[in-house]
Amino acid sequence: MLARDLGVSRGTVVEVYEQLIAEGYLTARQGSGTEVARSAVAPAQPRAEPTAEPTPRFDFHPGVPDPTSFPADQWVRALRRALRSVRPERLGYQDPRGTPELRFVLASYLARARGVATSPELVVTCSGFVRGLDLACHALRATGARRLGMENPTIPIHLEVVAAAGLEVVPLEVDEHGVRIEMVEASRADAVLVTPAHQFPLGSTLSPERRTALVEWATRTGGFVIEDDYDGEFRYDRQPVGAMQALAPEHEVYAGTASKSLAPGLRLGWLVLPDHLVDEVVAVMESFPGALDQLTLAAFLTSGGYDRQVRHARLVYRRRRDRLVAALLRRRLPVTGIAAGLHALVELPGGVAEEEVVARAAGHGLAIDGLGTFTAPGQRHAPALVVGYGRPPDHAFTTALARLGTVLRG
Amino acid sequence: MLARDLGVSRGTVVEVYEQLIAEGYLTARQGSGTEVARSAVAPAQPRAEPTAEPTPRFDFHPGVPDPTSFPADQWVRALRRALRSVRPERLGYQDPRGTPELRFVLASYLARARGVATSPELVVTCSGFVRGLDLACHALRATGARRLGMENPTIPIHLEVVAAAGLEVVPLEVDEHGVRIEMVEASRADAVLVTPAHQFPLGSTLSPERRTALVEWATRTGGFVIEDDYDGEFRYDRQPVGAMQALAPEHEVYAGTASKSLAPGLRLGWLVLPDHLVDEVVAVMESFPGALDQLTLAAFLTSGGYDRQVRHARLVYRRRRDRLVAALLRRRLPVTGIAAGLHALVELPGGVAEEEVVARAAGHGLAIDGLGTFTAPGQRHAPALVVGYGRPPDHAFTTALARLGTVLRG
Predict the structure, then answer these.
(1) Inter-chain contacts counted by CB atoms under 8 A, chains A and B
(2) Model confidence, pTM
């Protein structure tokens, strides 16, 4: 009857009934006909999306590169090259440490560009720095570590990750020569997390004396240094200072990332580990970056494309920094910290309330952080802005700077 | 003096000294000259690589697709399309649930191809099924779940992941109609993990009655069903049976993956969640698939390339299955389970020791699993082989089959 009503063949109706029964929408019992299954409920109401925060007109949040600088064409070509010569098993389930091609090329790049002393077997890839920190903390905890010294000020999410991994955070003060070593000595920490190339957010570099002292502390106490080399490739006033890692590879976890040099969205980072921590890290991994991104980065590094990209980005960011410094000097606002990276620390005159400047900036469509965002609660700090100059695209940078000037005129 | 000895300018030597001091290799003190830093130790000896297992000549391990079937050229084109129209912020730090483009396209694909009732806000991407299972278990545990019913036999790594997430595993027996519902009822489990489309490894499909009964159990007890739809796209004898998820979206976690349809190396999977579990899952995520792979998959789905790939793969694997079944029938070995997926269960005659056949196969360069690999320790099972026919490339399949025939002749 249904077939006649619908003007289709009997076979079609039978097939549809069988399919609906197989999928559980209908129930058929011998002798009692076919019914709609009671469990075939209507799908849930769609979830209400959280209302998105209004996007600021100009974004000076630190730590994010210009997304328009991603070398899209070269990346596509590198993927094509990688796929042309890929060993088929690389597309299967893989070595948790990462694809051998990338680990090999990274070991050689890091030795050449950052002075890291390592070999491919000690390189582990992960989906970005935060994930690498998470892995390192879990691995250190598994070997008995309980307390991690961390620079103050620092990035709040890093504090969360360390605490979630079960480590107690010991705040360490930072001055213009980097983390203060006497605080490390007094901390009874099992490991410390530092940003030797460019302290975030204060912008200092760890001095030669303190590098030596930190390594001496680690070797004497059996401690560990986690080196966050997030900005190591972006030094503007001189040849970049090499990584600390080579001073004591057995006491260091070196962490790097493609988030600044290429794009955070890639979710690609790497750890260089002491031999005995490799298995500990692998044991706590339960997700891995995609093989294609890894093979593409390997091809991009091999072709020299990565070096060209870093050189180009260095030039762009250096010009932006110079323009920012000049614009602020005209308002007699000093920029402190070394000429490096994607952010600058701008000291505000005494008596100016940092929060008010941040709120005024927001009123002008500028997203910007005060130093307070990165300072432990309850700790005092001089009023300052942390200006990230990476994110605004080139075409908007002049306007963004002018707008910042307007805000700071007040 | 050094400059003269080396025949270089004084400036070069001074610069090198400054660099070495800055990097901590030399220490310079006023009045006492420059010395090699005591901490500048030699790098560690390279770690010995574990000796790799010899690669089998022909690999019949189940659960792995033919890596040579990856649509490399189309994937590169999809990446190029995706990058041409990408919104720059997609390359920045992203929504932990995944890129909106992919979640939108996945919701629509899953509705169309698998009958899943969902919307983009309830889709979360992750790096493969195992990672998705890990997330689901952690989220369920956070909402109070303690016991997870799991099919026996099943995949050992799944057992490990569930236990590591703090859930107690309750084994559930499986017959030719899928998991036995009376065991679910008796299990006092808070949730069950099932493979309704194609039980792994026994190869049954969950019957309509049991689908209804399982959903009834979940709604009555407030329980959850985790649906592992790993093989849902690969049915050969009829239209694929849709996912169970639409029967009770509020009580289901649906899990899919690109590992079988594209490549495991992509590390891309997806969960479809009930509304109240989305935030729980996001809270336990700490790593995310790369944005480029997600955007590329979205472009690949939108263009219809993914559907073409699945149709093509279905044809290839169906032919392989037919050939395998025919070859085994000639040896009077029955293949059980539905015509689907990438593996077949081959019952061995009574009295034949499974382990001996597996060992004999290894002697002939064939990697193959016995059913025992997937059975809980101590549980009895009829001797059988789990033959994965996905992995050997097309050009080697005839030889691989012939070799398997030789092994089974004994």
Answers:
(1) 247
(2) 0.89
